[in-house]
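Let us practice reading a record.
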Amino acid sequence: MPAAGGAERQTSGGPSIASVILRKEVQEKLSEIQRADIVVGVPSYNNASTIGHVVRAVQAGISKYFPDRSAVLVNSDGGSKDDTAGVVTKAMLDDFGSLLIPQRMNPMEKIITPYHGVPGKGSAFRTIFEIAKELEAKACAVVDSDLRSITPEWIDLLLRPVLERGYDFVAPYYLRHKYDGTITNSLVYPITRALYGLRIRQPIGGDFGFSGELAKFYLTKDVWESDIARFGIDIWMTTTAVANKFRVCQSFLGAKIHDPKDPGADLSAMLHQVMSTVFELMIEYHDVWKNVQDSQPTEVFGFRYGVGLEPVHVHLERMIDKFTLGLQELSPLWERFMPPEVLEYLRSISSPPWRAEPRRSRKSSRSRA
């Protein structure tokens, strides 16, 4: 509420949650801005090479699709050493004419701040939620700072379902290379669909739209010292919205081209944080999913089209090395619940015949992957 927000910042007897989390200069900036219809958050850590494009795309999207709405871009940074903050400060769309966009009379405000708390994306989002709450934002969006395919249309598709259709949470719907999004495709999407009965194709996509009311609801949860403060934040946001009956939809954003992670690289920390959050949420929302029998489609906004995708190169030998190591170390555990024939099959594929072939043959095997 307006009075409560201002009072918390300026006149309350004790420090508010926001005053603990937000720095003094941010508090002063919030007092200057007072209110905003839209808040767009961009978490970052050493993203100087890509974040300028993201900021300009956000600015173009706000100017083109929401010219009459007040808007603030929040860069919540994890202590970058590559002048990410400097790039955000200087990033500015200076040629509105070539985009056929009328220049806004009131330029989009920027708040650039390091976040506090456990290092990770979730802590960066918490700061964005706090700022959205303080500004009484009606609609919010968060987008990754390493995006190369973001366009102004993304901002429209993430915010308009909230502002004009009454949705509280907008999940992204991308086209991605089959090797991009390993944890999503193999684990998180099928588990989320089976448990909660909604087909949300990218539950940890990273680029979301949500209402100001949902941002406030997120802040009521005491989760900011757990894995949710790290990579668990995306699945936590999606599941919390679904399990608490907020209205959820998806928006088709085209291709997601960013800095993909090789499935053969070390994704163990991300996997642990995401899956531990999934299991924690299963415990918390047992009463919600225990009676779910099937899944239902979730409405998708946006014009769908096909698009060429950048290939994701897989280090096949490294991936098999990790699989073989896992088989050796975890077999005693797997023997306790896996059928013997399944375990035998896993052992048989841990040493593919081509690994004994000459180098030229191995190279051609990698190219087929």
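A brief commentary: The longest strand covers residues 248-255.
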